[in-house]
Structures are given as structure tokens and as C-alpha cells.
Amino acid sequence: MLKRDEKNRFLPMEKEEYVEHVKKRLRGSVIMNKNGCWIWQKQLHYHYPYGITTFTENGRKSKQPAHRVSYKVFVGKIPKGLYILHQCDEPRCINPDHLHAGTQKQNMKEMRERNRANDKSRGKKGSKHGMSKLTEEDIPKIKELYKSGMSGTKIAKIYGVNNTMIYFILNGKNWTHVKEDEFDKD
């Protein structure tokens, strides 16, 4: 837990000062939607739609889910063995008012009660997946925009997705089922 002085040297931070620093950093990494969700705009987990952030705890720096860090700094310690669940059903939300501690069993029960069980989308690719914001037609356009010099961040804003998604598309980690020439107009 370090901060920099006027000569850009690192200085130790008090715990309370660090917590305030993290709160400010978290608030600056979100946009608020109409439901009051704080939607994480930085790094996402490579497989799940949760935000990831760096957090120092007990002298150890590690990458942790952003919603868990938010709960820790705004609400308090996470009880041992519990998960942090989203009342709003938005996995990228880090609003502490939308988070609560619970068991995995509770999480699965809430998922079924709210029809959040994404079974219909399981195994489906691209626009056929229920949570997709993009279509197969968007992928070549995204690649073309990037080739023309537009930044991944700007492309992400245009399409309403996280810049990590754009990075994955450009580097062949997501949307690999879309062939380069599939949507070319001759």
C-alpha cells in the first residue's frame, strides 16, 4: 500500500487512506446504468463476465473480482466461505448496494428463481448466445475499424462492449466461428 510523494517516490499509505484510494479508483472505473448498477469498464475475467482489479490485502497484491473488492471496501469483510452475490443480476455491477454475501446454494436458487439460468444459451456461439451484444456481421466491421487505425477502446464504445472483448476478437480468442470473408460484399 504505497503512494507517491511530490518527487514521484513511493511512500507507505495508512490502511484508511488506502481504502479511500481504492474506493475512488473503483468509482472511476464504472459507468452507472438506469438501474443504479455501477458497470465495470476495465479488465474482465477471461472466461466470466466479472470485472477484475488489483487489490492489496494483508500485504499481498493480487488480482481479484471487482465486485468482491467493492464489497470489502464499501461494506466490510466477506464472511469465510461465502460468495458475493448480485441482487441486480448484472455480473459486472460493483455497486455495494446491489451486493450481498451468500452461499453458492443461495446463488443457484436465486438464479433459478429469476430465470437467470442461462441454460438456453449454454454451448451457443455468437449472436445465438443470450448475453451477446454483438452479431456475426459486427466482427468483420470491428476488424476493419481497427485496421483503419481506430483504437480498440473507441471501437468498444461504439459497440457498447468492454475493450477486453475487442482485444479478444482481434486476437482470435472470441468469435472465432466468424470467417474473415464470410460477410464480405463483392
Mean pLDDT: 83
Q: What percentage of the residues does DSSP assign to strands (E)? A: 15-25%
How many helical stretches?
A: 6
CATH fold label of the largest domain: Homing Intron 3 (I-Ppo) Encoded Endonuclease, Chain A
CATH C-level of the largest domain: Alpha Beta
Helix and strand element order: EEHEEEEHEEHHHH
Low-confidence stretches: none
SS class: alpha+beta
Characterise this structure.
By secondary structure, the protein is α+β, with helices and mostly antiparallel strands. The chain has two domains: 115 residues, Homing Intron 3 (I-Ppo) Encoded Endonuclease, Chain A; 63 residues. It has six helices and eight strands. α1 packs across α2 and α5 packs across α6. The mean pLDDT is 83.
Outline:
By secondary structure, the protein is α+β, with helices and mostly antiparallel strands. It is 31% helix and 17% strand.
Keywords:
Homing Intron 3 (I-Ppo) Encoded Endonuclease, Chain A, two-stranded antiparallel sheet, 2 domains, alpha+beta, single chain, about 190 residues, two-stranded antiparallel ribbon
Strand and helix layout:
Elements (H helix, E strand, L loop, with lengths): L1 E3 L5 E3 L2 H13 L2 E3 L5 E3 L11 E6 L2 E6 H9 L8 E4 L12 E4 L1 H10 L24 H10 L4 H8 L3 H8 L16
Antiparallel strand pairs: 1-2, 3-4, 5-6, 7-8
Helix pairs in contact: 1-2, 5-6
